[in-house]
Amino acid sequence: MMEIITAEQLMEYLGDYILDAKPKEISEIQRLNYEQNMSDAMAILHKLQTGLDVNVKFTGVRVFEYTPECIVFDLLDIPLYHGWLVDPQIADIVKAVGNCSYNQLVEKIICCKQSDNSELVDEGSIAEQFLNNTATQLTYHGLCELTSTVQEGELCVFFRNNHFSTITKHKGQLYLLVTDQGFLTEDKVVWESLHNVDGDGNFCDSEFRLRPPSDPETVYRGQQDQIDQDYLMALSLQQEQQSQDINWEQIPEGISDLELAKKLQEEEDRRASQYYQEQEQAAAAATAAAQVQHVPGAASPSTGRQPGGSERKRKEPREKEKEPREKEKSSCAIL
Q: Is 161 left (phi over 0), alpha (psi -120 to 50) or beta?
């Protein structure tokens, strides 16, 4: 019988662990500091059910802008990694990105675009192109750094595209824990290898032995589908941002960087919601048109497939699935 733990129970277990893990022999200053961190962690612990606010920096796989949410990982002694790094050999991108976090880089790009200095404008364009080219939030340099940094057998958390995944390394290879709902009945599928930035990995069992899904035709696309959708969403938002200038006259003078970032995030959320609504409407219209045009005895149309997590695919053979996926990306990116 499968044991199910609710989110509330899990939060309670984590809270109890943080309280029990308090160091016994520490100085008064360390004790006060730990108690403050523990209080901050308890205050945001409920956010684990909906998502934490972490802000990556592009200089290292363990480099994040420090926020109260990071305290949770520190107190639980869980390493947090990402793979969105700038290749240090590309000097112009290194200069354009610098030591900025993601939010800071977005603000820098906006400021550079409004500048009269041609050098700053070029720098902003280079930084924007970097974000555009790495919309999947994983670079090959980052993947190499991850492989060399994560310790053998270490259990840690991997952040990518606003998602947190369990990651480990076995015999020098990185693996992500498979948590997609479509694999709920696949008791032999536990891990998926992370060996390229496209996210098309191999499925393995708990002993890291290759174990394809028992019925590939009925298994969701899993994590790759989520990565594809996040990638297309990022491209769509970036293209919309390029085609629409911000109305700076509506922004109050003296607004702080934090307030500006919040306004930009609200605009991104609005565009994302609009994007998904348009996709759903387009899919519904295509389905309705297909039903109207259907002739008894004729073959069913293969178009009108709704994009999203419900799409299914066969993982093998890989040579046959690469071309359709590329066509799908290119056609959606035009939006």
A: left
Cis, peptide link before residue 213, omega less than 30° from 0: no
What is the chain's length?
A: 335
Burial (CB count within 10 angstroms: exposed 0-12, middle 13-18, buried 19+), residue 127: buried
Region of residue 160 (phi > 0: left; psi between -120 and 50: alpha; otherwise: beta):
beta
User: Is the distance from CB of 289 to CB of 301 less than 8 angstroms?
Assistant: no
**Residue 287 burial (10 A CB sphere; 0-12, 13-18, 19+):** middle
pLDDT tens per residue across span 196-228: 888 778 889 889 998 876 665 545 454 455 555
What's the rounded Cα separation, in Å, for the pair 205 and 32?
A: 45
Element (H, E) at 260: helix 257-293
Residue 40 identity (one-letter amino acid)? D
SS3 321: helix
Is residue 88 within 8 Å of 142, Cβ to Cβ? no
Question: Measured on CA atoms in the order 63, 164, 312, 293, is the torsion positive or negative?
Answer: negative
Q: pTM to 2 decimals?
A: 0.62
Angle (CA) 22-23-25 rounded to 5° is 145
pLDDT of 16 > 80? The answer is: yes
What's the number of CA atoms in the CB half-sphere (13 Å) around residue 58? 27
Instruction: Find the helix packing angle between 257-293 and 223-243, rounded to 10°.
Output: 110
